[in-house]
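Aim 2 progress update. The chain analyzed this quarter is reproduced below.
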Amino acid sequence: MSFLKKINKVLAKPAIFLIRIYQYTLSPDKWLLSFWLKGRICAHEPHCSKYSVGVLKRYGFRPGIFYATDRVLHCTASTHKQYDPEHYRVVFFSSAPIGVPFLEHLTNDKRFEVVGVVTQCDKPAGRGMEMCENIIKQCGKKICKNTNTLSGFIATPEKLNPEKSEEGRQFAERLKEKKPDILIVIAYGKIIPQAILDIPKIAPINVHGSILPKYRGASPIQSALLHNDKETWITIMKMDATMDTGNMIDIIRFRIPFQWTTKQLIDEMKKIGPKFLNNTLRKYGKKILGEVHQDKNKATYCGKIEKESWLIDPRTDTIETIYNKYRAFALRPKIYFMINGKRVIIESLKLNEPLYNSNDELPLFQEETLHPAVSDIQLKPEGKKTMTRKEFLNGYMK
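Predicted structure tokens:
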């Protein structure tokens, strides 16, 4: 522990002591008139003095005194309570690598407590088809260092709906026992029923890789590149039982450079998304941010990518079509074309942007030459090693 953290913890103790004195002498919730004033003075749950003790214990003196002061300054007499805990209990749903930095950032932020991780079941992978844990489960194990609670911390249910299966009912009961304030869902891969979405005290929250209602569905990141969008967004939304139709809470946008593929786009989302999510959750919990309805008349949809989507014809498809597909499927499964019944994968494709813009209607292959915008290309014929542009032209195009 650093010196400043130690000082913060030490200074918090006398502050907590003074608040305890106030609680048992002047506080309307504990002193002599508490039988009449309790619940009538403070507009928050927990009440301000209890909240102040909680934030001082959790964050130390400097952050804690700021949070306590801010709470007291915004408190008014009311019988209508606003739930405002010193930190938020979170259950995290994800099954994809993009969820890892979000989970790690939530874990390292004292404003949140990750009390559970929900991911998909182990699946066979590799040549031996051995059962493998996905990366979210592996990350959850690192976070939950206490092996005695590991089985209750990570859940991999096959069925979620408590109204349709015994497994779903048991899962819902275990989730309720965790008393979550928020459910966070990022690329989980399953539809979550309304009975589960109703469990958190504040809201179920989804992180979506587009500006809704554009690109509702399973492939918003790939769709932005397939349509050659110049910018994309991350939308934080409140979930409902229908896919991606819930109210929007906050949006952050960023530009998509010409050279970026799905890899760079996901890397950027991993970089800026976690901090954006945490700050948005805090503002939403504090009622600083509200909700905005989606305009269903502007909705567009993107489903799971079909196998035929990454097959191209380099002699007839325009360079624009091919490059958009290359960028969208660069991570997997990668685009390919057929020559003499053999598959040829385009491993890497780099273009000169000005030449691309002035010749975007031409195909990739013209006779025995490549499009003039191609500055570098690497291709992997079926059963062969990756080839350079020159090697491929000499070996396959003549």
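The chain is about 35% helix and 20% strand. The chain has a mean pLDDT of 90. These observations will guide the mutagenesis experiments scheduled for the next reporting period.
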